[in-house]
Design brief:
alpha/beta, 3-stranded parallel sheet, TIM Barrel, 6-stranded parallel sheet, 16 helices, 13% strand
């Protein structure tokens, strides 16, 4: 019998009418909604941005689907929990940590009232989705960028039984994690003991069609910057029990970041102001506070000599087009060729089990 496996980063596919039917009435006209356009069906947002379904609902085709797909062709397990559990069994997964799809774009809504309302609607729906089997479906609730709204929603979703939350992976410059504006949120998260995930594409990011492939390739650097800012501004030093997840940003860069941060503090720290006073190196604080997910990153696995297995958590990314479904077990065998069994078990199951409090 193969070892149990947990996907530390999978996704739901929000129903097309989620916000249009559930958002409070004064805001409902501004809700994200499905619209049929000349090029196909899209989720359309108030600012005019439109997101096709193919990237979020075509697990299993390994990127071969055309640029657009109709809603009827979306993989059912994205929005139907019974179908989801069946696909998990097919792929050999014990449990999945669930992140949003279209709702990642909600982090870019500039109106704080509309953003918070959209997130409450999503969180309520996700609570219903995961209630089908809360041992295997581990939804991550969304927290608004506004700190007061985020702390209030954190209190609410903690009462709903969520095991973790998602915050913006990279807020706008000048309002990012290099400032002290989020201090109340860090304290509240540490007190609740809920890990906060910084997922790729959960912040200002507007790739153009002619530069999409380059922007997609380099997008992981935005969350890497957020984590470096949190380290050097003393967030992890002040809140040693805070747990943060880099979600879907791969891991090949992590070992270099650890070495680079220690080098920066040693060589440049005496000349540049910083609040760090702990005897722990930046890399040691990062190791204590941060975990990082990946799907198919053999280069990152080969850095285990430097990074160690405690930092990493494997993920399937179902039902997105980057997903390893339905061949996750084969991918794991290839990824971990030559890796000791203990390190492999820690990365494909134990780290996620410990972080999210699974029995």
């Amino acid at each position: 019998m193969p070892d149990p496996v947990i996907s530390a980063d999978s996704h739901v596919f929000e129903p097309g009418d989620l916000w249009e039917t559930r958002l409070e009435r004064p805001l409902r006209d501004r809700a994200p909604r499905v619209r049929r356009l000349d090029a196909g069906e899209f989720m359309v947002f108030e600012d005019g941005s439109k997101i096709p379904f193919v990237g979020f609902g075509s697990a299993g085709d390994r990127g071969r689907t055309s640029a657009v797909m109709p809603l009827d062709d979306v993989r059912r397990g994205g929005f139907d929990p019974a179908a989801r559990l069946a696909d998990m069994d097919r792929d050999g997964l014990e449990a999945e940590v669930l992140y949003p799809s279209f709702a990642m774009r909600v982090f870019s809504i500039e109106d704080p009232q509309l953003q918070a309302a959209c997130m409450r609607v999503y969180n309520d729906w996700l609570a219903e989705f995961q209630s089908t089997d809360p041992r295997r479906l581990l939804g991550q609730a969304l927290l608004p960028v506004d700190v007061d709204a985020a702390v209030a929603e954190l209190e609410r979703v903690a009462r709903l039984g969520f095991r973790g939350v998602v915050i913006s992976g990279h807020p706008a410059r000048g309002r990012d994690y290099g400032t002290d504006r989020f201090e109340r949120l860090w304290a509240a998260l540490a007190e609740k003991g809920l890990p906060a995930s910084l997922h790729v594409f959960t912040g200002p990011h507007e790739p153009e069609p002619d530069s999409f492939l380059a922007d997609y390739t380099l997008a992981t650097g935005m969350v890497a910057r957020s984590l470096a800012l949190m380290t050097f501004t003393g967030v992890f030093e002040r809140h040693p029990s805070l747990r943060v997840v880099s979600a879907e940003n791969d891991i090949g860069w992590v070992a270099h970041l650890l070495l680079r941060m220690d080098h920066a503090l040693e060589r440049k720290g005496p000349r540049y102001a910083h609040p760090l006073r702990s005897d722990l190196k930046p890399s040691e604080q990062f190791r204590r506070n941060v975990r990082c997910t990946f799907m198919d990153d053999r280069a990152g696995v080969l850095t285990l000599e430097i990074a160690g297995p405690e930092l990493f958590m494997w993920a399937s990314d179902y039902p997105h087009d980057d997903s390893t479904f339905p061949e996750s077990r084969k991918v794991i065998e290839r990824l971990f060729a030559g890796v000791p069994d203990g390190a492999r078990r820690r990365i494909v199951r134990e780290n996620a089990r410990e972080l999210f409090g699974l029995d």
